[in-house]
Amino acid sequence: MPVTLTRSVLREVLRWYAAGVALFLILQLTDALSTSVGAFLAYNATPRQALNVFGTLAPNVLNQALVLSVPFAVLLAFGRMQGDSELKAMFAAGVRPLSLVWPLALPFMLVGALTYLNAGYLVPAGLARFDQAWFAIYGGPVPAPTQDNYTFAAPDALFYAGRVHNEDGGPVAALDGVLVQRGNETVTAPSGLWDTAAQTWTVQGAWITRPGADPRLEPGPLVFAQTDRLRPPSPPAKQVSTPELRARLASAEGTPEERRVDRHQLAARVADPLTAVVFALAAGTLGLLLRNRAAAFAAVVVFVGLFYVLWITAPQFARVGALPPVLAAWLPNLVFLTVAAVLAWRLR
Questions:
Q1: What InterPro entries has UniProt attached to this entry (predicted)?
Q2: Interior/surface letters 155-186, b for 16+ CB within 10 angstroms, e for the rest
Q3: Residue 120 and residue 60 in contact, taking contact as beta carbons nearer than 8 Å
Q4: What dihedral do alpha carbons 326, 129, 161, 252 form, nearest 10°?
Q5: Regarding beta strands 200-203 and 207-209, do their DSSP bridges make them parallel or antiparallel, or are they unpaired?
Q6: 33-45 pLDDT, tens per residue?
Q7: CA distance 189 to 156
Q8: What b/e string do you get for 234-273 counting C-beta neighbours within 10 Å, with b at 16 or more?
Q9: CA-CA distances (angstroms) from residue 274 to 278, 309, 311, 334?
Q10: What is the 3-state secondary structure (H, E, C) of the chain?
Q11: Which pTM value belongs to this model?
Q12: Sequence-ordered list of residues with C-beta below 8 angstroms from that of 342, at least 6 positions apart, any chain
Protein backbone atom coordinates (compact mmCIF):
# COMPACT_ATOMS: atom_id res chain seq x y z
CA MET A 1 0.00 0.00 0.00
CA PRO A 2 1.39 3.46 -0.83
CA VAL A 3 2.91 5.37 2.09
CA THR A 4 0.76 8.39 1.28
CA LEU A 5 -2.39 6.31 1.64
CA THR A 6 -1.18 4.88 4.97
CA ARG A 7 -0.54 8.37 6.28
CA SER A 8 -3.96 9.50 5.17
CA VAL A 9 -5.70 6.64 7.02
CA LEU A 10 -3.62 7.18 10.17
CA ARG A 11 -4.29 10.91 10.07
CA GLU A 12 -8.03 10.28 9.89
CA VAL A 13 -7.93 7.74 12.76
CA LEU A 14 -5.74 9.91 14.99
CA ARG A 15 -8.00 12.89 14.43
CA TRP A 16 -10.94 10.87 15.74
CA TYR A 17 -8.73 9.46 18.49
CA ALA A 18 -8.00 12.93 19.85
CA ALA A 19 -11.72 13.67 19.86
CA GLY A 20 -12.41 10.34 21.57
CA VAL A 21 -9.88 10.94 24.35
CA ALA A 22 -11.42 14.35 25.02
CA LEU A 23 -14.94 12.86 25.00
CA PHE A 24 -14.15 10.00 27.39
CA LEU A 25 -12.26 12.32 29.74
CA ILE A 26 -15.21 14.68 29.87
CA LEU A 27 -17.69 11.84 30.43
CA GLN A 28 -15.67 10.27 33.24
CA LEU A 29 -14.90 13.55 34.98
CA THR A 30 -18.55 14.61 34.68
CA ASP A 31 -19.59 11.33 36.29
CA ALA A 32 -17.07 11.81 39.12
CA LEU A 33 -18.24 15.39 39.62
CA SER A 34 -21.92 14.44 39.72
CA THR A 35 -21.28 11.90 42.49
CA SER A 36 -19.01 14.22 44.48
CA VAL A 37 -20.47 17.69 44.23
CA GLY A 38 -22.99 17.04 47.02
CA ALA A 39 -20.23 16.15 49.48
CA PHE A 40 -18.12 19.11 48.34
CA LEU A 41 -20.98 21.51 49.07
CA ALA A 42 -22.05 19.83 52.32
CA TYR A 43 -18.55 19.97 53.82
CA ASN A 44 -17.60 23.35 52.32
CA ALA A 45 -14.69 21.94 50.38
CA THR A 46 -12.29 24.48 48.97
CA PRO A 47 -11.46 24.43 45.24
CA ARG A 48 -7.99 23.16 46.15
CA GLN A 49 -9.43 20.22 48.12
CA ALA A 50 -11.81 19.34 45.30
CA LEU A 51 -9.00 19.46 42.75
CA ASN A 52 -6.90 17.25 45.02
CA VAL A 53 -9.63 14.59 44.94
CA PHE A 54 -9.83 14.72 41.15
CA GLY A 55 -6.02 14.71 40.97
CA THR A 56 -5.89 11.34 42.73
CA LEU A 57 -8.29 9.90 40.13
CA ALA A 58 -6.78 11.61 37.08
CA PRO A 59 -4.16 8.93 36.17
CA ASN A 60 -6.76 6.16 36.26
CA VAL A 61 -9.27 8.23 34.29
CA LEU A 62 -6.60 9.04 31.71
CA ASN A 63 -5.67 5.38 31.24
CA GLN A 64 -9.28 4.37 30.64
CA ALA A 65 -9.79 7.22 28.17
CA LEU A 66 -6.61 6.36 26.24
CA VAL A 67 -7.71 2.74 25.77
CA LEU A 68 -11.47 3.14 25.24
CA SER A 69 -10.92 5.85 22.62
CA VAL A 70 -9.22 3.39 20.26
CA PRO A 71 -12.33 1.57 18.99
CA PHE A 72 -14.19 4.89 18.97
CA ALA A 73 -11.56 6.39 16.65
CA VAL A 74 -11.05 3.42 14.34
CA LEU A 75 -14.73 2.56 13.89
CA LEU A 76 -15.90 6.13 13.32
CA ALA A 77 -12.99 6.88 10.99
CA PHE A 78 -13.70 3.80 8.86
CA GLY A 79 -17.44 4.46 9.07
CA ARG A 80 -16.90 7.97 7.70
CA MET A 81 -14.64 6.65 4.95
CA GLN A 82 -17.19 3.97 4.04
CA GLY A 83 -19.99 6.53 3.97
CA ASP A 84 -18.00 8.76 1.63
CA SER A 85 -17.02 5.76 -0.56
CA GLU A 86 -13.30 6.36 0.09
CA LEU A 87 -12.73 2.74 1.08
CA LYS A 88 -14.58 1.53 -2.01
CA ALA A 89 -12.26 3.62 -4.17
CA MET A 90 -9.20 2.18 -2.41
CA PHE A 91 -10.40 -1.40 -2.89
CA ALA A 92 -11.21 -0.70 -6.55
CA ALA A 93 -7.66 0.55 -7.00
CA GLY A 94 -6.33 -2.81 -5.78
CA VAL A 95 -5.60 -1.99 -2.11
CA ARG A 96 -5.96 -5.11 0.03
CA PRO A 97 -8.38 -4.51 2.96
CA LEU A 98 -6.08 -5.93 5.63
CA SER A 99 -3.26 -3.65 4.51
CA LEU A 100 -5.30 -0.80 6.01
CA VAL A 101 -5.47 -2.54 9.39
CA TRP A 102 -1.87 -3.48 10.27
CA PRO A 103 -0.52 0.09 10.28
CA LEU A 104 -3.09 1.00 12.94
CA ALA A 105 -1.15 -1.04 15.52
CA LEU A 106 1.92 1.22 15.32
CA PRO A 107 0.65 4.45 16.95
CA PHE A 108 -1.33 2.51 19.54
CA MET A 109 1.78 0.63 20.62
CA LEU A 110 2.99 4.01 21.87
CA VAL A 111 -0.34 4.48 23.66
CA GLY A 112 0.14 1.05 25.24
CA ALA A 113 3.61 1.98 26.49
CA LEU A 114 2.24 5.17 28.05
CA THR A 115 -0.64 3.36 29.76
CA TYR A 116 1.75 0.65 31.02
CA LEU A 117 3.95 3.18 32.81
CA ASN A 118 0.93 5.09 34.08
CA ALA A 119 -0.77 1.91 35.41
CA GLY A 120 2.39 0.74 37.15
CA TYR A 121 3.28 3.91 39.03
CA LEU A 122 0.97 6.93 38.78
CA VAL A 123 -2.38 5.13 39.07
CA PRO A 124 -1.45 3.24 42.29
CA ALA A 125 0.04 6.37 43.83
CA GLY A 126 -3.11 8.35 43.05
CA LEU A 127 -5.48 5.69 44.42
CA ALA A 128 -3.37 5.42 47.59
CA ARG A 129 -3.92 9.16 48.21
CA PHE A 130 -7.66 9.04 47.50
CA ASP A 131 -8.79 8.41 51.10
CA GLN A 132 -6.52 11.13 52.49
CA ALA A 133 -7.94 13.61 49.98
CA TRP A 134 -11.53 12.81 50.96
CA PHE A 135 -11.00 12.80 54.72
CA ALA A 136 -9.24 16.15 54.46
CA ILE A 137 -12.61 17.45 53.22
CA TYR A 138 -14.49 15.65 55.99
CA GLY A 139 -12.13 17.19 58.56
CA GLY A 140 -11.30 13.91 60.27
CA PRO A 141 -8.46 11.37 60.32
CA VAL A 142 -8.34 8.51 57.86
CA PRO A 143 -9.78 5.39 59.52
CA ALA A 144 -7.17 2.90 60.62
CA PRO A 145 -6.83 -0.03 58.20
CA THR A 146 -8.45 -3.27 59.29
CA GLN A 147 -7.61 -6.89 58.58
CA ASP A 148 -10.44 -9.27 57.76
CA ASN A 149 -10.49 -13.04 58.23
CA TYR A 150 -7.34 -13.20 60.36
CA THR A 151 -6.14 -16.78 60.97
CA PHE A 152 -3.17 -18.07 62.97
CA ALA A 153 -2.29 -21.72 63.60
CA ALA A 154 -0.30 -22.24 66.81
CA PRO A 155 1.13 -25.67 67.76
CA ASP A 156 -1.77 -26.35 70.13
CA ALA A 157 -4.57 -24.04 68.93
CA LEU A 158 -6.16 -22.29 65.98
CA PHE A 159 -7.00 -18.57 66.28
CA TYR A 160 -9.48 -16.78 64.02
CA ALA A 161 -10.99 -13.29 64.04
CA GLY A 162 -13.46 -11.96 61.50
CA ARG A 163 -11.85 -8.53 61.82
CA VAL A 164 -8.82 -7.05 63.57
CA HIS A 165 -8.72 -3.27 63.98
CA ASN A 166 -6.12 -1.17 65.75
CA GLU A 167 -7.40 2.41 65.86
CA ASP A 168 -4.50 4.13 67.64
CA GLY A 169 -1.64 2.02 66.33
CA GLY A 170 -0.73 0.86 69.87
CA PRO A 171 0.02 -2.66 71.13
CA VAL A 172 -3.66 -3.53 71.77
CA ALA A 173 -6.05 -4.37 68.92
CA ALA A 174 -9.79 -5.05 68.98
CA LEU A 175 -11.15 -8.35 67.69
CA ASP A 176 -14.59 -9.05 66.18
CA GLY A 177 -16.02 -12.50 65.61
CA VAL A 178 -13.50 -14.56 67.60
CA LEU A 179 -13.02 -18.32 67.35
CA VAL A 180 -10.36 -20.35 69.19
CA GLN A 181 -9.99 -24.08 68.62
CA ARG A 182 -7.83 -25.93 71.16
CA GLY A 183 -7.84 -29.63 71.87
CA ASN A 184 -11.42 -30.92 71.78
CA GLU A 185 -13.08 -27.60 72.61
CA THR A 186 -14.16 -24.66 70.52
CA VAL A 187 -14.46 -21.18 71.99
CA THR A 188 -16.47 -18.48 70.21
CA ALA A 189 -17.04 -14.88 71.27
CA PRO A 190 -18.47 -11.76 69.63
CA SER A 191 -15.40 -9.66 70.48
CA GLY A 192 -12.08 -9.58 72.29
CA LEU A 193 -8.76 -7.83 72.75
CA TRP A 194 -5.32 -8.74 71.40
CA ASP A 195 -2.48 -7.54 73.61
CA THR A 196 0.68 -7.99 71.58
CA ALA A 197 2.92 -6.91 74.47
CA ALA A 198 1.52 -9.61 76.78
CA GLN A 199 1.01 -11.99 73.80
CA THR A 200 -2.58 -12.77 74.79
CA TRP A 201 -6.11 -12.81 73.43
CA THR A 202 -8.79 -11.92 75.99
CA VAL A 203 -12.47 -12.57 75.25
CA GLN A 204 -15.67 -11.83 77.16
CA GLY A 205 -19.03 -13.58 76.89
CA ALA A 206 -17.48 -16.66 75.31
CA TRP A 207 -19.33 -19.85 74.50
CA ILE A 208 -17.43 -23.11 74.97
CA THR A 209 -18.43 -26.18 72.96
CA ARG A 210 -17.16 -29.71 73.61
CA PRO A 211 -18.09 -32.96 71.83
CA GLY A 212 -21.22 -34.54 73.30
CA ALA A 213 -22.05 -31.51 75.47
CA ASP A 214 -24.27 -28.46 75.10
CA PRO A 215 -22.57 -25.10 74.52
CA ARG A 216 -21.76 -23.37 77.81
CA LEU A 217 -21.53 -19.63 78.42
CA GLU A 218 -18.36 -18.64 80.30
CA PRO A 219 -19.27 -15.86 82.80
CA GLY A 220 -15.79 -14.40 83.16
CA PRO A 221 -13.02 -13.42 80.72
CA LEU A 222 -10.94 -16.07 79.02
CA VAL A 223 -7.27 -15.47 78.27
CA PHE A 224 -5.32 -17.39 75.61
CA ALA A 225 -1.60 -17.24 74.89
CA GLN A 226 -1.08 -15.99 71.32
CA THR A 227 2.46 -15.44 70.02
CA ASP A 228 1.76 -14.03 66.54
CA ARG A 229 2.83 -10.45 65.72
CA LEU A 230 0.31 -7.71 64.97
CA ARG A 231 1.12 -6.52 61.45
CA PRO A 232 -0.63 -3.76 59.53
CA PRO A 233 -2.74 -5.15 56.70
CA SER A 234 -1.27 -4.96 53.24
CA PRO A 235 -2.67 -2.18 51.04
CA PRO A 236 -4.97 -3.26 48.19
CA ALA A 237 -3.18 -4.41 45.06
CA LYS A 238 -4.52 -1.49 43.03
CA GLN A 239 -2.70 0.93 45.39
CA VAL A 240 0.70 -0.79 45.07
CA SER A 241 3.26 0.04 42.38
CA THR A 242 4.35 -2.70 40.01
CA PRO A 243 7.82 -3.30 41.60
CA GLU A 244 6.28 -3.44 45.10
CA LEU A 245 3.58 -5.80 43.87
CA ARG A 246 6.19 -8.16 42.41
CA ALA A 247 8.11 -8.07 45.71
CA ARG A 248 4.94 -8.80 47.68
CA LEU A 249 4.17 -11.83 45.52
CA ALA A 250 7.74 -13.07 45.87
CA SER A 251 7.48 -12.88 49.67
CA ALA A 252 4.53 -15.35 49.66
CA GLU A 253 2.60 -13.16 52.12
CA GLY A 254 -1.18 -12.90 52.35
CA THR A 255 -4.12 -15.24 52.08
CA PRO A 256 -4.75 -17.33 48.94
CA GLU A 257 -7.46 -14.87 47.88
CA GLU A 258 -5.16 -11.86 48.37
CA ARG A 259 -2.43 -13.56 46.34
CA ARG A 260 -4.88 -14.31 43.53
CA VAL A 261 -5.90 -10.65 43.48
CA ASP A 262 -2.23 -9.59 43.43
CA ARG A 263 -1.40 -11.94 40.56
CA HIS A 264 -4.39 -10.73 38.56
CA GLN A 265 -3.50 -7.08 39.16
CA LEU A 266 0.10 -7.66 38.07
CA ALA A 267 -0.97 -9.50 34.90
CA ALA A 268 -3.61 -6.85 34.14
CA ARG A 269 -0.95 -4.13 34.17
CA VAL A 270 0.56 -5.81 31.11
CA ALA A 271 -2.66 -6.95 29.46
CA ASP A 272 -4.66 -3.72 29.77
CA PRO A 273 -2.08 -1.49 28.01
CA LEU A 274 -1.92 -3.99 25.12
CA THR A 275 -5.70 -3.68 24.82
CA ALA A 276 -5.08 -0.51 22.81
CA VAL A 277 -3.30 -2.54 20.10
CA VAL A 278 -5.85 -5.36 20.25
CA PHE A 279 -8.67 -2.83 19.93
CA ALA A 280 -7.00 -1.27 16.89
CA LEU A 281 -6.82 -4.63 15.10
CA ALA A 282 -10.30 -5.81 16.07
CA ALA A 283 -11.96 -2.46 15.38
CA GLY A 284 -10.04 -2.10 12.13
CA THR A 285 -11.23 -5.42 10.74
CA LEU A 286 -14.79 -4.72 11.90
CA GLY A 287 -14.74 -1.18 10.51
CA LEU A 288 -13.93 -2.43 7.02
CA LEU A 289 -17.17 -4.44 7.04
CA LEU A 290 -19.38 -1.51 8.06
CA ARG A 291 -21.40 0.38 5.50
CA ASN A 292 -22.21 3.75 7.08
CA ARG A 293 -21.68 6.08 10.05
CA ALA A 294 -24.74 4.83 11.96
CA ALA A 295 -23.44 1.27 11.92
CA ALA A 296 -20.04 2.53 13.08
CA PHE A 297 -21.57 4.35 16.06
CA ALA A 298 -23.62 1.26 17.02
CA ALA A 299 -20.48 -0.86 16.77
CA VAL A 300 -18.66 1.50 19.17
CA VAL A 301 -21.40 1.02 21.78
CA VAL A 302 -21.34 -2.78 21.42
CA PHE A 303 -17.54 -2.86 21.37
CA VAL A 304 -17.08 -0.81 24.54
CA GLY A 305 -20.00 -2.49 26.31
CA LEU A 306 -18.68 -6.01 25.68
CA PHE A 307 -15.20 -5.05 26.81
CA TYR A 308 -16.54 -3.40 29.97
CA VAL A 309 -18.54 -6.51 30.93
CA LEU A 310 -15.50 -8.75 30.50
CA TRP A 311 -13.18 -6.28 32.23
CA ILE A 312 -15.48 -6.00 35.28
CA THR A 313 -16.45 -9.67 35.70
CA ALA A 314 -13.14 -11.44 34.98
CA PRO A 315 -11.36 -10.08 38.12
CA GLN A 316 -14.20 -11.44 40.29
CA PHE A 317 -13.71 -14.91 38.81
CA ALA A 318 -9.98 -14.61 39.52
CA ARG A 319 -10.57 -13.46 43.10
CA VAL A 320 -12.68 -16.50 44.03
CA GLY A 321 -10.47 -18.93 42.10
CA ALA A 322 -12.95 -19.71 39.31
CA LEU A 323 -10.38 -18.60 36.71
CA PRO A 324 -6.58 -18.51 36.88
CA PRO A 325 -5.60 -14.88 37.62
CA VAL A 326 -3.42 -14.53 34.51
CA LEU A 327 -6.12 -15.95 32.23
CA ALA A 328 -8.71 -13.61 33.77
CA ALA A 329 -6.45 -10.62 33.11
CA TRP A 330 -5.96 -11.57 29.47
CA LEU A 331 -9.53 -12.77 28.81
CA PRO A 332 -10.83 -9.49 27.25
CA ASN A 333 -7.83 -9.31 24.93
CA LEU A 334 -8.18 -12.97 23.94
CA VAL A 335 -11.86 -12.46 23.10
CA PHE A 336 -11.16 -9.44 20.91
CA LEU A 337 -8.15 -11.09 19.26
CA THR A 338 -10.47 -13.96 18.34
CA VAL A 339 -12.95 -11.46 16.90
CA ALA A 340 -10.12 -9.83 14.91
CA ALA A 341 -8.94 -13.20 13.58
CA VAL A 342 -12.44 -14.23 12.44
CA LEU A 343 -13.07 -10.90 10.74
CA ALA A 344 -9.61 -10.92 9.14
CA TRP A 345 -10.37 -14.35 7.68
CA ARG A 346 -13.50 -12.89 6.08
CA LEU A 347 -11.49 -9.99 4.64
CA ARG A 348 -8.58 -12.06 3.33
A1: LptG/LptF_permease
A2: eebebbbebbbbeeeeeebebbbbbbbeeeeb
A3: no
A4: 40
A5: unpaired
A6: 888 988 898 889 9
A7: 19
A8: beebbbbbbeebeebbeeeebeeebbbbbbbbbbbbbbbb
A9: 6, 18, 14, 11
A10: CCHHHHHHHHHHHHHHHHHHHHHHHHHHHHHHHHHHHHHHHHCCCCHHHHHHHHHHHHHHHHHHHHHHHHHHHHHHHHHHHHHCCHHHHHHHCCCCHHHHCHHHHHHHHHHHHHHHHHHHHHHHHHHHHHHHHHHHHHCCCCCCCEEEEEEEEECCEEEEEEEEECCCCCCEEEEEEEEEEECCEEEEEEEEEEECCCCEEEECCCEEECCCCCCEECCCCEEEECCCCCCCCCCCHHHCCHHHHHHHHHCCCCCHHHHHHHHHHHHHHHHHHHHHHHHHHHHHHHHCCCCCHHHHHHHHHHHHHHHHHHHHHHHHHHHHCCCCHHHHHHHHHHHHHHHHHHHHHHHC
A11: 0.80
A12: none
Say which residues have a Cβ less than 8 Å from residue 85's Cβ, sequence separation at least 6. none
Alpha carbon separation from 100 to 7, 129, 168, 171, 300 (Å, rounded):
10, 43, 62, 65, 19
Q: How far apart are CA 114 and CA 275, in angstroms?
A: 12
- Could you give the C-alpha distances from 312 to 25, 259, 276, 328, in angstroms and in order? 19, 19, 17, 10
